[in-house]
Amino acid sequence: MAIIFRVLITVLGAMPACVAECLASGIGWLSTRLPSKRLRLMKRNVDQVLGLAPHTSFAQTFYAQVFSSQIRCLIDTCRGVIWPGSVQIEDGNDWVDLVRRLESDGRGIIFMAAHIGSWELAANKIAATCSRHVRVLAKRPKVPGGAAALEWLRGKSGVSVLWSHKKSLVKDMMSALRKGEHLGMVVDQKPEGRVGDTVQFFNRPVAFVTGPASMSLRCDAVIVSVAVVRTGMRRFRLMGRLVFDPRSARDLSGEQEAVHVSQLCTDEIEQWIRLYPEQWTWEYKRWIFNT
User: Fold this and answer.
1) Separation in Å, CA 263 to CA 200, 208, 210
2) What's this model's pTM, rounded to 2 decimal places?
């Protein structure tokens, strides 16, 4: 199965731009007309959070845009990872210079990403920018061969995978940061068992993963945000900034400080989504609604 995934990734990456555009538009249109759990979750989230009622034509157009955007980003990601330089990534706010300055003091960096745009190209850009080793967290895919394919794809980007199901995960993360290595985390998924810091996300309480805050405070590691959003055919924009430095922490207790850091991370993700709402994966169960 891993070989099949590799072939599929290569075929997608080699697809002509005009064909990719037609395919993405067609899948986006079709996905809004075939009943699915993903579509139901998206409709509920968009209705409750953005206030777009599912029956409106504006909402229907938005659903199609979300699905189409995912396909466009997937195809461009495959191309950009397999053939470096074939996809243009513009550094929107001197992110590369920021990371290189932060690396110069020898501390580890926690790169905080989200399921917006292309998080795989974000990993690719992190590895290309950093002079030290980068490890990225990932949930092990349930599809046979998926784990091997993901390790191969991220290996092409120059990063190694830390699987989140391993009992030694926390120890491995701390060890990497204390050696001056870097960690990459996609942090907008729900925590296991919904156990995490409670923060405000689009003015609603949600449980946020504790990894970035706890690792930053325990290992004296800075948190840098990173997002690579699509701006056109085979063109992306790199966004990000310094989100938190434990050496400038406020005078709060350990638990209060951790929640404060988690809220800073959540605010950053929300800002991205408000700028590029169609490029975020709305079909995840992140909120619990009473109605």
Assistant:
1) 7, 8, 11
2) 0.92
